[in-house]
Amino acid sequence: MAFFGVCFAPSNQNLLSPSRPKPRPKPPLFSTSMSDSSSHKSIPNDIKNPHKENPSICLSKRKLNHSIVAIVLSATLPSISEAKAEELELERYTDSKEGFTLLRPSSWIKVDKAGATVLFEEANKGANNVGVVVNPVRLTNLGEFGSPQFVAEKLIQAEKRKENTKDAEVIAVSERSGQGGLQVYVFEYKVDSTRGGMKRIFSAAFVASKKLYVLNIAHSDKPESPLETNKRMMLEKVLHSFDAAPLT
């Protein structure tokens, strides 16, 4: 039988007979054992190289690391469900009497204010608001008054004439088509004032049925607490939803 790489064979030789020199055992073929002066012993791979990790252990560690990364990312990155929840914060508001419609933040409170046709304010943050003003005009479309850039300059000049305004700057100007090909001017600008500090303003305007419709969205945008990306996206959806009410 074989034991630790050393072979022992049975013998019929009488134990009392003169001893004969025994043949030296041959080492096993393809042996990976290490030998010393006394015996040949097979050394397990993990003992031979204690610094070499078992492949199954390495695989388990790799899976564990991937799981940890996945957990961290899921905690820090916005998920698809969160993005959908953000969309659900908006609801349609339509004023059939005045003839306009828009999406508005469902959690914002409707308040009465002189000069505003409708006004919604964020709870406990009245400086953040969405308001619409409707006034009669002699125009049939905004193009008769001027280009989007011209109107934007008039808006900024009006802001700068206010006593509490420290600075005002146009960020973006564009034009889009509304209900029935209606001309809609869209503006974004920022205002720094002694009342409320820095604000981001999103505005849209159109003329329909000899009425001027102006949407104004104001939100705090201070350096120490800038407007968050998700909040901005929501407000932009409000901005681009502003339109004449569909004819019934």
From TrEMBL:
Annotated Low complexity bias: 31-42
The record's InterPro entries line, in alphabetical order, gives:
Mog1/PsbP_a/b/a-sand, PsbP_C
* Single annotated GO MF: calcium ion binding
Supply the PANTHER family for this chain. PSBP DOMAIN-CONTAINING PROTEIN 2, CHLOROPLASTIC, PTHR31407
The identity of this protein, by name, is PsbP C-terminal domain-containing protein
Q: Which Pfam families match?
A: PsbP (PF01789)
Q: Which GO terms describe its biological process?
A: photosynthesis
* GO cellular component labels: extrinsic component of membrane; photosystem II oxygen evolving complex
Q: List each copy of the PsbP C-terminal domain by range.
A: 90-243
- Its domain of life? Eukaryota
Start and end residues of each stretch annotated as Disordered:
12-54
